[in-house]
């Protein structure tokens, strides 16, 4: 890559999300002004060999760099997770915690990194986001649309750690200043919270919003258009985030750019992935029955 700028991008997913992850990575390459300058860091919990080959094809097809870490074969997060106070939501799933340790997990000297969920579709050059002035903030992100419910939950009950009067950001698309991020001590930041309050925390999104209060730069919603419907297409969103149950691979879903998404994943991968999801849904229904 020579002396050109490198754009570091992080994804975390398991084998149930190989198809959307491929679509996200492909969309980043297709819309990039220079896909050879993209460097993907993929943290996964075991991928079948054929699915792994599909993810690896991104490097061959677009010239992007690809670094894969199988968290089932590595204990790089074990000691760090063990040091955290108990949190109810899937505490032992390492994927949940990768975002909190990016300054340690990414190559030394990495200045900025984009964390992006695997249920996204990037439609405009990601270089535009990397080029923004972060104004000294640690993270640049978009507000959570349903933040009142995320903060307060059932019956909008008050919580001591988070307030509905303050901004609350979605952690699915985050541009991170890693030099500032490295100085954050999340364990120290959580000390003093009652155990009952910690048990209500929603994955690492609550942790980020609590510990980094006042250190977020608010982005234009088009950088993380959540739960996008066809009517949102007119806004020319930069990143679509299919974060609800209405996923673009379900035929009954009403989502923005649904047909384009199918071709983004490619027809072959899309229909194979769709069949897998049908079987997964059927098995879940049979267990409930």
From TrEMBL:
Assigned keywords, A-Z: Glycosyltransferase, Metal-binding, Transferase
Signal peptide range in chain numbering: none
UniProt keyword annotation of Metal-binding present: yes
Annotated SUPFAM superfamilies: Nucleotide-diphospho-sugar transferases (SSF53448)
Any one GO molecular-function label of the UniProt entry: metal ion binding
UniProt keyword Transferase present: yes
PANTHER family per UniProt: GLYCOSYLTRANSFERASE 8 DOMAIN-CONTAINING PROTEIN (PTHR13778), LIPOPOLYSACCHARIDE 1,3-GALACTOSYLTRANSFERASE (PTHR13778:SF47)
Name of the protein in its database record: Glycosyltransferase family 8 protein
Species, as recorded: Devosia marina
């Amino acid at each position: 890559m020579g002396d050109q700028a490198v754009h570091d991008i992080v994804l975390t997913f398991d084998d149930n999300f190989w198809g959307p992850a491929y679509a996200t990575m492909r969309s980043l390459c297709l819309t990039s002004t220079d896909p050879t300058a993209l460097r993907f860091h993929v943290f996964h919990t075991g991928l079948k060999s054929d699915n792994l080959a599909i993810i690896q094809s991104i490097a061959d097809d677009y010239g992007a760099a690809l670094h894969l870490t199988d968290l089932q074969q590595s204990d790089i997060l074990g000691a760090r997770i063990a040091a955290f106070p108990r949190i109810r939501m899937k505490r032992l799933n390492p994927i949940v915690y990768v975002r909190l340790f990016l300054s340690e997990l990414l190559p030394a000297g990495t200045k900025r990194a984009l964390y992006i969920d695997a249920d996204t579709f990037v439609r405009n050059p990601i270089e535009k986001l990397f080029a923004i002035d972060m104004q000294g903030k640690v993270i640049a992100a978009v507000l959570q649309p349903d933040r009142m419910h995320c903060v307060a939950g059932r019956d909008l009950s008050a919580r001591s750690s988070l307030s509905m009067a303050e901004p609350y950001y979605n952690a699915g698309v985050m541009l991170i200043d890693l030099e500032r991020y490295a100085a954050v001590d999340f364990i120290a930041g959580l000390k003093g919270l009652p155990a009952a309050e910690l048990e209500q925390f929603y994955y690492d999104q609550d942790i980020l919003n609590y510990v980094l209060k006042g250190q977020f730069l608010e982005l234009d919603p088009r950088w993380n258009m959540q739960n996008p419907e066809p009517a949102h297409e007119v806004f020319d969103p930069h990143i679509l985030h299919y974060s609800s149950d209405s996923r673009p691979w379900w035929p009954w879903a009403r989502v923005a750019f649904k047909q384009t998404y199918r071709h983004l994943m490619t027809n072959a991968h899309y229909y194979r992935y769709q069949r897998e999801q049908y079987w997964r849904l059927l098995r879940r229904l049979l267990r409930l029955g």
